[in-house]
Structure formats: structure tokens, C-alpha cells
Amino acid sequence: MKLKLPNPGLDDRIPSHADLEKLEVEEADSRPKWDNKTQYMLTCVGFCVGLGNVWRFPYLCQSHGGGAFMIPFLILLVLEGIPLLHLEFAIGQRLRSGSVGVWGAIHPCLAGVGVASMMVSFMVGMYYNTIIAWVMWYFFNSFQDPLPWSQCPLNENMTGVVSECAGSSSVDYFWYRETLNTSASIEDSGGLQWWIVLSLVCAWAVLYVCCIRGIETTGKAVYVTSTLPYVVLTIFLIRGLTLKGSTSGIVFLFTPKLEELMDPKTWLDAGAQVFYSFSLAFGGLISFSSYNSVHNNCEQDAVIISVINGFTSVYAAIVIYSIIGFRATATFDACLNGNILALLNAFDLPEGSISESNYDETFSRLNGTSPDVIQGLNLATCDLQTFLSQGVEGTGLAFIVFTEAITKMPVSPLWAVLFFIMLFCLGLSTMFGSIEGCVVPLQDLNIFPKRWPKEALTGVVCLVSFGLALIFAQGSGNYWLALFDGFAGSVPLLIIAFCEMMAVSYIYGIDRFNEDIEFMIGHKPNIFWQVTWRVISPLLVFLIFVFYLATTATQELTYITWNPEYDDFPNLETRFYPQWMYAIIFILAGVPALMIPFVAVYKLIQIYCYGTKDNAYDTKSSVSSVSAKVQLSEIRT
Amino acid sequence: MLSLLLLLLSLPPALALECSKDHQDGYQVRLSIKTALGDQAYDWNESELFLFKATIAFAMRKYTKNETYDVSNIVVCNETPRVSFWFIVVNPENPTLAITKTRVEEAVRVSRNRINNAFLLTDKTLEFLGIPPTLATPVTPATPPWLIVFGVVIGAVCAGIVALLISSFVRGKRANKAKEFAEEDDQAKGADKGISGETFEDRNGVYNQAFSDDDRFTQL
After folding, report:
1. Does the structure show a pLDDT above 90 at A175?
2. Shortest distance, CA A534 to any CA of chain B (angstroms)
3. CA angle A152, A249, A338 (to 5 degrees)
4. What is the pTM of this model?
5. pLDDT tens by residue, B30-65
6. Of B146, B157, B158, the CB nearest to A141
7. A477-506 per-position pLDDT tens digit
8. Angstrom distances, CA of residue B6 to CA of A135, B2, B3
9. Residue A632 to chain B, least CA–CA distance (Å)
């Protein structure tokens, strides 16, 4: 009754249950293994919990109705995140291979899914590590008092500050000028910024030293990189709650606006956030799961990791918004005091006659008596809500808003160091999964000679990625990164995830999958999993994909730039991408996705024209004889 | 005629001495004592004004190096409850002549720090409207601090990479050697295991000399 596409030869390509039991008992498997369950859980948590939990979720939460956003987020977490996670864990644990191996085993034509995963892992890893390089640059600069982004540098004749800094702010200037040295448009390359190149070298070197022997080394590294962010978040929470104005930030974050639930964009953003937050379709999770013992309870793992991921998002949102609340209150106070000073100076009133409490009435009284003077003063409008909603996302949150908040705290260098260590750990643990999703398929595809040790393979991947990531070290690097983030890490993942679910449910066969899970963990997956794997989750992913395509196709392709000559400086200028950029966008978004049909067609031709059987599993011998069916190592005589 | 001339001569000095707002050689000063000192703010009174006049006189003396300025040479007017006022510096020899704006500005800039400290204020809270503050040159260390931290981190990482690569290499060599020994022993004891029907825990087992050479050539 259940729909299943014909899939001949599947049993030859995958280890049977008996094979798996034997592998389990004899431990004759040459694959690496986790030292203990903790390492595996920490690695998966680290891969899932990343920078997005800290700087994307809080922004989404606040901009889509605060507390009300929790509803679509939690619903989609359960309907989309947990099933997909369980699927990837189970298939990896069952088929005991990386992404290329797994999909290739299910059907040779599906190897393209694995290849697409590998390409996406590679491209995302490239730009993600550049963000880590920026974090490291800020980290290096945090060991001084006063912090370099707390004050504007002086101009040549020492009479004032640099005009670009005076026009914007010291944090903006430090980010756009002294860190990125950003050019005004993406066409203007601006040359390589040597300090960013050094930071990139450092970031890739640290990643290499942690990934050098695969999970043997990352398994040790995750004890620090996965736990430290929680420690730092707690420290910041305690620090944040003791600052003035923090509660207004948290209240602002969670104030529910239930009418936002009517807007489909809220649900779309929630679904997309759940999807990207779980680092699905990268191939890393399948790989990590394949190193487990066969009878590991992957169902429990999936639920636990999803819960931890959701909890971390909410926890990080609370911490971030307590600090944003503090910053907004400080900015509001400064704004108000600036206005009060202007009024005192203009009307020569004694100090202290206007305070925050009587500002409004005094202002209206003065406006009534001499409105023209008030006009001439150009007083700024100070609204706390505006400052709170200035809560930005992404790099703007980490490198501009949060760094500004840190400068207002006592003992700023300490908080800066802690904050950037946390971001570094969050990013690095995600990179482990990315590297895994790149290196293991390369091994499976036999692109490099088999006798090359893992260290060499990882080294080559890191070196090539570093070389290509030099694009992001240019003056226009920030714009290239935004481009990659928008197109390489979005559409292909949705397509891959959809294909994964279709492959497991309908090509591998949901019946067989259910039996596998029963063999592995002892009981068949219940109706919830059946419904979500076969209908709900694919549908949700498909809907997100369609909506995403619709919104991207209808809007013009623009990007925002930092241009000191812009009329509306310091606001960011919106510019159109040049024509040749469309080709690049197509390469980023289209090529990984197109790998799936391309490899499928290639394999089809290979099978039907040359008649070669692609036995992904049967590596012991390709000779069809008695010895091929029986394990050779058993025979002594 | 003569009396008219005397009258005319006496008029300009009277005009010059008159300190007024927006006088061409005057400066407006604004103090924000409460902002700067909070609870420890002092009240602005005649004595404080006297101190101010004295500091300006000191500044003029220091700048000109010989001319003896006195508090009476500093003319103040237009005091407001904001604590702001205008002042003009007049020539000690000829009290009818005001010192030019630029000279006063330069004198104040030279001694700005001393003037500020006399009142426990800063450039922002003791404002001379029109005189930009001389900002202190920031201390730039020889090596940027970030380069030092970078050096430490990259050094540690490189040491880690080298250590891990060497240990991998050593481990690989050791495994190769062990495998060579194991293979030799395996081939030597192949028949032994099968015949006796035991599976030895130790792969090396007992070396049976009788079958050592034969088994090397009889294999499945």
C-alpha cells in the first residue's frame, strides 16, 4: 500500500542486519569511533548550536511579535526539525557511511545528493570561517584598555576626530574602516587587507589543528568548544541583569504581538530558522552518526539535541536582549541629556533645573514661549522603543551593537574577551561539522589516493578553502560574504533536505527504514514519525522553498553598502548588483542543486550503457566467488 | 573746540572698556559644574569668578612671558544662572585696549590643562566657545597589542599541528612495524591454529618450528 519506487540491488549495496551485528560484536570495523557518548552528543550540539542561535533567532523573535514567535517556532521545531534530525541520525547509523556513501548506497543515481551536500558544506565552510576570522580579529583587539572601538581616532591636525567616525560612531568606524576597510561597492575590490588575511590564517590553522585526525581530535576539542558558550552566556546573563535597563530589553523581546501570527512571513521565517539552525542537509550529521554503535538510541538523541538547540536559542535571546536593553537605555539617557544640555545652554538656565522627569513639561513650556529658538536647536527625538528596535541581526549585532554595549560596561576588555571567545567557540564547533561534511565525501568518492592519510586530506581541504576565502579578505569582502550567505547557504539546502526525505521514504522504503530502526533501537518508530517523515516535513520544506523562491524572484537583487560619500550617511546605501553577479549567484545556488540531476543522469548512463554495478558497500572484493561472500579474514587454513 | 576734542578723545576708551555679548575680542565661557562633579559640585560665586580671572591672567602671563597681567585686566560680563559669561582681556598698560581674539585663544590653548584643573573640570565641562580643545595624542605602543595576541595564538596552534603530525607519523611507523611482525607470525602459525582448533588471544601464539617454512608456500 505504501508508495515505494523500485530499487533493485539495494541489498547488495548496504550491510545487512547480520553484518551489522557482526561488526558490532567483533569491532572489526575500520571506521573511526566515538570515545564515548558524551563526545558524540557534544559534537552534534556544537554543530547545531552556532552563530545563528545568537544573532539570528533573537532578531527574528523580536521582529515577529516577541513571545508570539515562540508558537510557530516551537510548532515547526517539532514538525520539521526533530523528524529531519532523526532521519539523518538513523540513516547514518544504519548505513555507516558519510553522505555520499549513504545516498549512493540507497541508489547509485542519488549519489548527487551527497555531492551536493559536500559542495554546500564546502562553500558555507568557506564564508563561515571568515566570520570566525573577524571574531578572532576582535578577540585579538580586546586585550587593551580602552578598547579600540570605544573612541574615534584623531585626525591629522589633532583638532577633532576623523570625519567618517564623527559622522557615524566609533563602533561603526572600527568595524567598517579599521576591520573591513570596506570599499563602497562590490565591484571595487579594494585589495587584500593584510590583517584580515592574518586572522584568516589563524582561523584556518585553529580549525586544522582541531580537525586534523577527524573525530579523534574534534572529539577532544568539543569538550571546550561546546560547553564554553553556555558558561559565557550565563556569565553575561548575570552581568546583564544587574545593568540598568536590561529588563526593558527582555520585556521588549517577549511582548507578544499575536497579530504577527497572521502574517505568513512569520511562519516562513520560523520554518527557515528551524531548518538552518539544525545544520541539516550538510552531511555532517549523517557522518557523525555513522561512527556510533549500531544500537545507539538515535531517536532519543534527536529529541534531546532538538530540545537543547531550541533552549539555547531562547536562552541566548534573553541574554542578548538584556544587553540590548541596557544599551538602548544608555543611548536614550545620553540622547535625553544631550537635549537637556542644549536647552540649558540656549536658555541659560541653571544646571539641574531640567531633569529627565520634568523634561517633557519644560520642553512644552519653552516651546510655547519661544518656538523659533527650539526649532534652531534641532533636538533629537529620544524614543526608547526606537532604540530597542534597533536590535540588528547578524554581524551588525555582534560587531556593532554588542561591542558598543560592552564599551559602556565597567571592565570592558574582560567582557569583550569573553564575548568573542563565545562566538569563536560557537562558530568553530559548527565548522567541525562542515569539515566533516567536506572531507568524508572526498574520501568516499576516492578523489584522492587511498594511501593519503586523513591529515593530508584535511590539510588540502583547509588550504584550498583558505585560498578561496581570500575573496572575503578584500575591501569588498563583506559584500561577497553577504552574497554567499544569501545564496549558497539557503536554496541548495532546502532542495537537498527534500530529496533526502523523498529518498528515505520512497526509494529506500519506509517499511525497510522502520525495520532498520526497530533493529537498531528496539522498537518501531511510532505514528508521529511516520506522518512527519512521509508527509508533513517534506511538505513544510517544499513550502519554505517555494516561498523563498517567490520572494527572491520578485525582489530586485540589491545589497547594502557602507559609503561615506552617501547623502544619507551613516545609513547604509542600497545598490544593485552588477549584471555579471547573476552568473555568480547562479553558480552558488544552482550548481550544488543541479548536481543532483546531473549525477543521476551520469550514473544512469553508466549503468545502462556500460552495465557496471556500483557496489558502494562491497569493498572487500569485486570477484564473484565463494570467498567474496564469506569473510576472508576468518580462514586460516 | 578744545573741549569738543577732549570729549571725542574720552569717548572711545569708555566704549572699549564696555564688555558686551558678541564683542569682537571676547569669548563666552560655559561651565557645567554639576554635570562634572555631581554631588561634590561647588557653588559658583564671586570667589570662583576671581579664581577664573586669575587663571586667565596667569595664562596671558605665561603666553606673553613678560607682560604683567592682573585680575583687573580680565573684564567679565553677562553672567547667567547657567554659569556662563563673557570675558575680554585688556592690555595692562592701556586698559582701554582689548587683546585680540587670536592671542587670547592661543594663550588659553597653551594653559588649557592648568585652567581646567583649577576648577576640577574638563574640556567638555569648561567650554570656551570658539576655542577647540587640544586633544591629547593617544599613546601608540610600538607593536600593536593585537599582533602580540595573534603571535601567541598562532604559535600555540603551529606547535599543536607539528606535535600532532609527528605523533601521527610515529604511530603510523609503529603500526607498520607491528603489522610486519604480525604478518610473519601469522603465516608461520597459520596451520597451527587451524589444527589445534584453538583461537589464541595473543596473535603471536606459540611458534611451532615444524611447520614454519612449509606454510609460507601453502596458502588458500
Report:
1. yes
2. 45
3. 45
4. 0.84
5. 888 888 888 888 888 889 889 999 998 888 888 888
6. B146
7. 999 998 998 888 888 899 999 999 999 989
8. 80, 6, 5
9. 10
d(CA A472, CA A460): 19
Q: A158 in contact with B at a CB cutoff of 8 Å?
A: yes
Question: A341 at the B interface (CB within 8 A)?
Answer: yes
Q: Find out whether A337 and A364 touch, Cβ atoms under 8 Å.
A: no
Q: Maximum CA pair distance of chain B?
A: 153
Distance CA A225, CA A427 (A): 9
Q: Which residues in chain A touch residue B193, judged by CB atoms under 8 angstroms apart?
A: 636
The whole-angstrom separation of Cα A444 and Cα A455 is 16
Evaluate whether A508 touches A10 at the Cβ level (below 8 Å).
yes
Q: What is the pLDDT of residue B189?
A: 60
Per residue in A21-31, pLDDT (tens digit) is: 887 777 666 78
Distance (Å) from the alpha carbon of B138 to chain A's nearest alpha carbon: 8
- Name the closest residue on chain A to residue B189, using Cα atoms: A636
Interface of B with A (CB under 8 A): 30, 32-35, 80-84, 132, 134-135, 137-138, 145-150, 153-154, 157-158, 160-161, 164-165, 168, 172, 190-191, 193-195, 220
B45 or A569, which is more confident: B45
Instruction: Provide ipTM, 2 decimals.
Output: 0.83
Q: Are A240 and A328 in contact (CB under 8 A)?
A: no
Q: How far is A251 from chain B, CA to nearest CA, in Å?
A: 31
Q: Compare all CA atoms of chain B with the CA of A160 and give the residue at the minimum distance.
A: B135
Q: Is A602 exposed, middle or buried (0-12, 13-18, 19+ CB in 10 A)?
A: middle
Q: Which three cell numbers stand for residue A14?
A: 548496504
> Distance between alpha carbon A518 and the CA centroid of its chain, in Å?
33
Cβ atoms < 10 Å from Cβ of A219 = 24
Out of A351, A453, A455, whose CB is closest to B34?
Answer: A351
Whole-number Å distance between alpha carbons of A408 and A150 = 9
A139 Rama sector, left if φ>0, alpha if ψ -120 to 50, beta otherwise? alpha
- B85–chain A nearest CA distance, Å: 10
- DSSP readout, B96-143? TSBPPHHHHHHHHHHTHHHHHHHTT--TTTEEEET----PPPPP--SS
Task: List the single residue in B84, B160, B194 with the smallest CB-CB distance to A636.
Answer: B194
Contact B145 A141 (CB under 8 A): yes
- The count of CB pairs under 8 A between chains A and B is 93
Q: Which residue has the cell 573612541?
A: A151
A279: left (phi > 0), else alpha (psi -120 to 50), else beta?
Answer: left
Question: Which helix (H) or strand (E) element contains residue A422?
Answer: helix A412-444
- What are the helix (H) ranges across A141-193? 163-167, 170-173
Strand partners, B128: B29
Chain B neighbors of A139, CB-CB under 8 A: 149
CA atoms within 13 A on the CB side of B119: 30
Helical axes A215-225 vs A412-444, angle rounded to 10° = 160
Query: Is the C-alpha dihedral spanning A375, A380, A382, A387 positive or negative?
Result: positive
Give pLDDT tens digits for B85-114: 888 888 888 888 888 888 888 888 888 888
Nearest to A206 among B157, B172, B195 (CB): B157
